[in-house]
Hints:
mainly alpha, 0% strand, 72% helix, elongated, Ferritin
Amino acid sequence: MMNDNEKQAAIETLNRIMELELAGVVRYTHYSLMVFGYNRIPIVSWLKGNADESMAHAGKAGEFVTMLGGHPSLKIGPLLETHQHDIGDILRESLEQESTTLKAYYDLLEQVEGKSVALEEYAREMILLEEMHLDEVNKMLRKPGEITPFSE
């Protein structure tokens, strides 16, 4: 069972997650508009799918905020316009965004572990999804035939 201070800390982290996920919606939508070239159609489709997924994740975080008696944030996480629209640049920015969001989910897990099964399971589920997404982006950044994970 969570006390009031623990609930407040979880609400703050959930609101940060919501803001980061909403920033993801904006970023992925923007990226999808800036892709040109032969591979445009599948990449745009993938980016739009990520925007939709980020929107769903933001909504889920907001539902937990209200479940705990909090007020969902109206803010959006940081948005950086690098004006770099090469697919590799977009994927590297995506990797950075997803890594930041993943850390927020780990922060939530640490806060609620052993105190709320619902929030703990939610955090674990989202960590799994984010880590799998990071792996997907990482594999897209590798050269064909390259086995070693991408790192900057």
